[in-house]
Design a protein that fits this description.
Length: 442
């Protein structure tokens, strides 16, 4: 059985560390085309800082399929074109007149990897053709087009969680991708639309009227995606194949707001035990610099994804990304924490008033600690390193330690034996520190 803790020496692991790159969805939704993707490829590959920092994934999301009639308000498809005479998915000729092969070829020539989207249901979130009952065939088609990742979404009401339909579709798609690509293509499962636990446990769905929620929200432990996915993986006859899913999104799509950010990272906080190398919990795309939050809130966003060891997939307009935003997401000291080889997801150790403390054990036997201030005034944020009930590192107990500032790679305190370390954090801002033990209590 696969361990859930730490990075494993897996012979066929197409995603050993969290991926970095850009997706079309958050900023453009259904308004995508060949020009946008081409410009995105050149924007990613052409920026020296992004390239050096390993931002090498470009993900084409929903709304690429054939369509006869569109909703003018949002670009969603009202009348999908369907499949061709061989049962294959059809590319939208207006949006992608040259098909996908030139785009995958260009991405690979530029040193990038490129992903595509489909849905568990017969119709995608955007109203285009999905993959229900065509999983293996579509997997072969995606691989033949040259894609390196397949995102499998879960919109719709025609494939419930309660009768095993979604579980079976997941199994067929991931096995199809593995067989078609010899284990080289990443399988990203989006179980946040909505195939997640209910926010309020309501197993009998009292007063729930939304059909999709009734169909897909888990009401039993075995219906929660990260639970049955790991059970499915544990039943693989050869765990070194590591068929996936390699990414599991667990809540709704994010938007460029602080409320959306906090909602998704707090859902991640509940499941650190289910992350390992090649199986990353995904709180959805980051929106760094898109304009909906303050700069200090974007710092909270990026530091949070770093401490979570989460995928760093941008959802802004990569073509107009500011130097300030690029400098934040390419800070190598931050990226090293995000991609620490143990792949441990950070835990929310304490939430008190407007402050939060998150802790991530590192492979160096140090601790990365996120100190967050959600209030409107600067405040001291404390991290307690000894004791019992109040200890943020429990059961670790430190007698003496050093404190470093991670973004600047500088030392704040060379040696201290204080039970509590306090740092002033600005209004609606965060700090990311490293605690280096000198001596532990035995």
């Amino acid at each position: 059985m696969l361990s859930l803790i730490g990075c494993l020496a897996i012979s066929l692991n197409p995603l050993p560390v969290p991926p970095r790159g850009w997706s079309t969805w958050t900023s453009f939704t259904c308004h995508i085309n060949e020009t946008l993707v081409t410009e995105g490829i050149h924007a990613l590959a052409g920026n020296a800082k992004l390239k050096k920092a390993g931002f090498n994934w470009l993900l084409i999301d929903d709304c690429w399929g054939g369509c006869f009639e569109y909703d003018p308000a949002n670009g969603k498809c009202l009348k999908p074109e369907g499949r061709d005479e061989n049962g294959n998915l059809v590319i939208n000729k207006k949006k992608f007149p040259n098909g996908f092969e030139p785009l995958t070829k260009l991405a690979h020539e530029q040193g990038l990897k490129i992903g595509i989207y489909t849905s568990v249901s017969a119709i995608t979130c955007g109203g285009y053709m999905g993959s229900l009952y065509h999983e293996e065939q579509d997997a072969r088609q995606f691989v033949n087009w040259g894609f390196d990742l397949v995102k499998h979404d879960t919109c719709g009401t025609d494939c419930p969680i309660h009768n095993g339909c979604i579980q079976n579709a997941t199994h067929h798609m991931r096995d199809g991708i593995y067989e078609a690509s010899n284990g080289t293509v990443v399988y990203a499962l989006d179980h946040g639309n909505p195939v997640s636990p209910q926010r309020v446990f309501n197993p009998h769905n009292y007063d729930v009227t939304n059909k999709e929620a009734i169909t897909k929200l888990a009401t039993k432990p075995e219906e929660i995606s990260w639970v049955w996915v790991h059970k499915m993986k544990s039943e693989d006859t050869d765990p070194t194949q590591h068929k996936g899913p390699h990414l599991i999104k667990h809540w709704f799509d994010r938007d460029d707001s602080f409320v959306s950010l906090m909602t998704n990272i707090h859902l991640s906080a509940k499941i650190p035990e289910y992350q390992s190398s090649g199986t990353f919990n995904n709180p959805d795309y980051i929106t760094t610099g898109a304009g909906g939050m303050s700069w200090s809130q974007y710092r909270i966003e990026f530091y949070s994804y770093v401490i979570l060891a989460a995928p760093l997939l941008l959802g802004n307009d990569i073509r107009t990304m500011s130097d300030q935003a690029i400098d934040l997401v390419t800070n190598q000291h931050l990226l090293d924490i995000n991609a620490d080889p143990d792949c441990i997801q950070g835990s929310l150790s304490r939430s008190l008033g407007d402050t939060e403390v998150w802790v991530k054990p590192l492979s160096t036997k140090d601790f990365a600690v996120l100190l967050m201030n959600k209030g409107n005034n600067p405040t001291l944020v404390n991290v307690t390193v000894n004791g019992w009930l109040e200890n943020d590192l429990f059961p670790v107990m430190l007698d003496s330690y050093r404190v470093d500032d991670i973004p600047t790679n500088t030392t704040i305190v060379q040696n201290t034996s204080s039970k509590v370390f306090s740092l002033q954090v600005g209004a609606m801002d965060a700090a990311l520190i490293r605690i280096v033990p000198h001596k532990v209590v035995v």
